[in-house]
Each structure stands twice: as C-alpha cells, then as structure tokens.
Predict the structure.
Amino acid sequence: MKRQLGVVIIGAGDMGARHAHHWVIAGAKLIAVCDPNCARAEAVAAPFGAEAYDSPDEPLKRDDVDVVSVCTPTFLHDEYSIQALEAGKDVLCEKPVALTLADAERMKAAALKSRRKLRIGFMRRFDPAYHQLMAYRQHIGNPVLAQATIAAGIRPKLLMHDAMANGGPIIDMCCHIFDQWVGLFDSQPESVTAYGYTFSQNKPELESIKQKALDSAHITLNYPDGSVGQIQVSWGLPAGIAPIEHHTYMGPDGLITLDWPQQLTLRNSAGTTRWDNNGVDPWKTEIMLFYRELVDGERRHLATVGDGIEVLKTSLAVLESVARQRAVNPAEIVLKPELKETA
Ligand SMILES: NC(=O)c1ccc[n+]([C@@H]2O[C@H](COP(=O)([O-])OP(=O)(O)OC[C@H]3O[C@@H](n4cnc5c(N)ncnc54)[C@H](O)[C@@H]3O)[C@@H](O)[C@H]2O)c1
C-alpha cells in the first residue's frame, strides 16, 4: 500500500467533519466529501482543497481513493459501506454498525467478499478514560457490579429518536457501553433483562417522527464471570437538560467512580486515587491507528464488523427483552430464515 492514502467522506455532519480533520492530520489526502446537502459537503471539503459531491458514485470510481469514512445516519451505514467495499475501498464506518442484524451481516459478507477492511468506529476504545478504567479494574477484584447512568434531554437531532434512522439510545448510545464492557468483562453478556419507555411519546418536539424509538430504559446484563452490569439511560428528559454520564464499578477489593470521560476515582485499601483525562481526542487516535493499519497491514485495536455485530445483538436483545418481558441471551438473536438468503 502506498504511503499517502486518499480518503472520501460520506455524510458531512458532525462526524464527517471530525473524520475529515483527523484523516488529514494522520497524513491522508482528503479527496472528496459527499452529502445530498451540497452546502454541508462543500463546508467540510473546501478547507482541505477537496471536492464536494451530492453522491459518492463518482469519487468511488477513482483509483486514488483508498479508504472511505461512512458518517451518515445509521440506517444508511450498510448501503454506503457495501458500495465502498464493492468499489475496492477499505471502510471506517461510524458506530453503531447498522440498525438491523440483516444489514450488518450484509456488510460483513461484502467485506469478506471484497477482502477489504471494514472497521466500526467504537472510538471509546481509544479514550484515555477507558484505558484508565481498564487499569483500575485490576484493583477492585471479581465479580464486579457495574452501573452506568446516561441521561439527557430530547436530542436536538431528531433522527436520533427515529426507530428507522438512528434507532434511539439503546442502539445508538448503549452500544458504546456494551462494547466497553465486553473489554472490561472479557466476554459478551449471557443474559439481558430490560424495561423500556418512550418518555418523549407525547412531547411536541418529536411530533413529526412516525416511529419513535424507545428513549429510556433500565437494563441488566449478566456476564459469565458473575459480574452484573446495569444501565439507566434516557434521552427523553425535557429538552435542554444537559447530558450526564456517570459509572460506578464495585468489586470485593474496591470502588471505581467515573464521570465520563473527565475523571476517574479508585477507592481501595491503598486509599483514594484520582485521575483526570488529558484530553487526547479518541477519534484522532482511532483514525491514526487505522491509517497505520492500512499502510503496514498490522491489525490495531479498531472494532471489526464482527465486534459491531456482537454489540448490535446486545442492543437487539434489550429491545427483545422489553417486547417479550423476559430475559434474553444475545446469542438468541439470529437472522430470520427469509433474511439469510440476502445477507
Ligand atoms: N462515535 C461517536 O461517539 C458518535 C457520535 C455521534 C454520532 N455518531 C454516529 O455517526 C453517524 C452520523 O452522526 P452525526 O452526528 O455526524 O450526524 P449528522 O446529522 O451531524 O450528520 C449526518 C450527515 O449525513 C448526511 N446524509 C443524510 N443522508 C445522506 C445520504 N443519503 N448520503 C450521504 N449523506 C447523507 C446528512 O445530510 C448529514 O450531513 C451516526 O451513525 C451516529 O450514530 C457517532
């Protein structure tokens, strides 16, 4: 692989702008930015001398394009990732992998067939706060009782509440925690029990959304080592309430409290140790490491499409548990037979 990679960004919103910036810092040449909203594409492309398009069809034909960042709303991740893979490009697709298991499996099949790399943007893996959490985790023993509270007012981006677009917080937000906890507990959960709510059901801000996603949930995850995780999540509080995210991790030897991602505190028999985040941008690390992986072929710690699928199964198990009012093992989440043929 040549040294300077050529990049195309699909979706020129917040994530597209971020990816463009970090690809250039990593050493890539930004070749094109695509968004049906041409003004947005132009605003991201112009500072880097790149071209703006309303569709990726043309830029994906170019030989000087090596890698594509898919930064569209989630329901489009499959379509654009597959198009880029089929055009022979490597892909970094924002998290979550997709809205449905069938979409995600099609992405995996396209990656296998094309022999290109498809990585999913679980950038929290590269957050200094996560590294510190993994370091402190050794000091609290087993099993761990984990708890995360994530709460915010109705999100200003309405697609985040749309079951058919970004899928609501169980798919869009909790995927980060599920992925972090796979690392922390070294395993997928074996049982998920959840209660779900749509606090925003009758709020006028979301009147235009036909299929509102659940916006609030209480989730319990059981891990094979006896650890238990609980998540309380809501994006359905009154608009304007600023987001919070707090975690606690208790084990026989100590307690970790985490004000994500700024501050961690470990309390154990050695005393109290505090850690403050140094502010390294996890997207920057993620994109830099993917750049290196593409140049030297050595696998870094970016999430694979398979990792993304496992996490999606946990989100889908939460939704299934809410619907069926019973515990669900994420391993039960499989493609329905009629969908297998097209996956
Ligand atoms: N890693 C993280 O923590 C994180 C944070 C925020 C968002 N995300 C994910 O990134 C993705 C994008 O989120 P965002 O916050 O940047 O959204 P956004 O709304 O800011 O941007 C999305 C962009 O996609 C464009 N778009 C819509 N339809 C398109 C199409 N058919 N083709 C090309 N572009 C199209 C929109 O015009 C918009 O410019 C989502 O999947 C979201 O879950 C990840």
User: Anything to note?
Assistant: The pocket of nicotinamide-adenine-dinucleotide is lined by residues 10-16, 34-37, 40, 71-74, 76, 94-95, 121, 123, 157, 166, 172 (CB under 6 Å).
